[in-house]
C-alpha cells in the first residue's frame, strides 16, 4: 500500500509538473512580441522616374522605413548626379491624394542638411505625418525627388512603395 501511495504521488507530481510546463509554454507564446509593424523599402532613384523623364547617368538609392506608431519616416539617401559639376539644390518627399508614379505632386516634407556637391549621403527622420499623409504614403502616392543645378525640376526620383 505504501508503494502505491509513493508511486501515486510521483505520478501526481509528474502530471502537475507537466501541466505547469505546458501552461508556462502557452503563456510565453501569448506574450511574445508581434511581428514588426515597420514598413521598409529600398527605392531606386533615377532620371527615368522623373515626370517627364530626364536623361541623366545619375543614380541613387534610398532606404526608407516607416514606423506607423511614431508616424515618421527614417531614411538614408545616397546619390550621384550625372554631372560632377552639378550641385544638389533641393530634396523633398512629394505626395498627394491623387499622387502616382506618372504625375508630379507638391512637396510635402523638405529635407535639409544635404551636401551641396554632386553626390553624397543623407540620413535622418521626418516629422510625424498626418493621418492623410500616412494614408497617401501607404497607398504608394509618394515619391522622393532630388533636384540639381542641371535639372532644377528634379534629376533623380524614386517612387515609394512600402
Summarize the structure.
By secondary structure, the protein is an alpha+beta fold. It has helices at 2-31, 131-138; strands at 39-46, 59-67, 72-80, 88-95, 107-110, 119-125, 142-148, 156-159.
Any overview of this molecule?
It is built from 2 helices and 8 strands. It is of the alpha+beta class and 162 residues long. The chain folds into 2 domains: 32 residues; 121 residues, Sandwich (Immunoglobulin-like), CATH 2.60.40. The chain has a 4-stranded antiparallel β-sheet, with no helix packed on it. Strands 5-4-7-8 form a 4-stranded antiparallel β-sheet.
Index terms:
single chain; 162 residues; alpha+beta; 4-stranded antiparallel β-sheet; 2 helices
